[in-house]
From TrEMBL:
Residues 3-119 form the Response regulatory domain. The modification 4-aspartylphosphate is found at residue 52. This protein is a positive regulator for the phosphate regulon. Transcription of this operon is positively regulated by PhoB and PhoR when phosphate is limited. Keywords: Activator, Cytoplasm, DNA-binding, Phosphate transport, Phosphoprotein, Transcription, Transcription regulation, Transport, Two-component regulatory system. Its main location: cytoplasm. Gene3D superfamilies: 3.40.50.2300, 6.10.250.690, Winged helix-like DNA-binding domain superfamily/Winged helix DNA-binding domain. It comes from the Bacteria. This is Phosphate regulon transcriptional regulatory protein PhoB. The gene is phoB. Residues 128-226 form the OmpR/PhoB-type domain. PROSITE patterns: OMPR_PHOB, RESPONSE_REGULATORY. InterPro entries: CheY-like_superfamily, OmpR/PhoB-type_DNA-bd, Sig_transdc_resp-reg_C-effctor, Sig_transdc_resp-reg_PhoB, Sig_transdc_resp-reg_receiver, WalR-like, WH-like_DNA-bd_sf.
Length: 235
């Protein structure tokens, strides 16, 4: 279930957004101001933030800039909400690092469409679409993983880990990033937990001869690659 942090000081609007998004299958956390939002994100990275521009204290724009400047949150998907339809505001919102921008009042339909578009682009592992790399296919809706007709059995953590790798192939992910994005906990789980589950994932992939798709990148973390599969001699 994709998680969304709604940062909005007007409680009536926040509640209405929360009700509609929960109804649409999202997990919602509410924050009334920048301080609450920072605490929430520090605890668990949401899949996306709906960020009101006008907040008491630190503004939504300042908060977006702050998240963009931090390595852990620089890729956090953000949709800015504003009562102002001014084009120059839209530009400064996007300049501050927002992925999209919605002017109040907006319909639930429009909000959902924007959220899904940003998630598809930025957090595909939060959605239910099947994904395939190097013939290795994972379907979240049926919970099935297979390669070349060989059905693979994965535990729940290995399934989520593989889903994340498949939706972000060829990129190196540190253990801390994996804890944040796959476990949702970067503070209380030890990094070697990641190593344990990567080992289990490789074992689970072995029957389809693709364990080597999960590469260890020394001193950096792990990466899913299909390059090793095409290991024919080349110039
Ligand atoms: Ca406001």
């Amino acid at each position: 279930m994709p998680s969304i942090l709604v940062v909005e000081d007007e409680s009536a609007i926040a509640e209405l957004i929360a009700i509609n998004l929960r109804h649409a299958g999202f997990e919602i956390t509410l924050a009334e101001n920048a301080d609450q939002a920072l605490v929430a994100v520090d605890a668990v990275l949401p899949d996306l933030v709906l960020l009101d521009w006008m907040l008491p204290g630190q503004s939504g724009v300042a908060l977006a800039r702050r998240w963009r400047a931090d390595a852990r949150t620089k890729e956090l998907p953000i949709i800015m909400l504003t009562a102002r339809a001014d084009e120059s505001d839209k530009v400064s919102g996007l300049d501050a690092g927002a992925d999209d921008y919605l002017t109040k009042p907006f319909s639930t339909q429009e909000l959902l469409a924007r959220i899904r578009a940003v998630l598809r682009r930025r957090v595909p592992e939060a959605l239910d679409a099947a994904v395939e790399v190097g013939g290795l296919r994972l379907d979240p809706s049926t919970r099935r993983v297979a390669r070349l007709g060989v059905e693979l059995k994965l535990g729940p953590t290995e399934f989520r880990l593989l889903h994340f790798f498949l939706t972000h192939p060829e990129r190196v992910h540190s253990r801390a990033q994996l804890l944040d994005r796959v476990w949702g906990d970067h503070v209380f789980i030890e990094e070697r937990t990641v190593d344990v589950h990567v080992k289990r994932l490789r074992e689970a992939l072995q029957p389809a001869q693709c364990a080597q798709m999960i590469e260890t990148v020394r001193g950096a973390g792990y990466r899913l690659t299909q390059q090793v599969m095409a290991s024919a001699p080349s110039a």
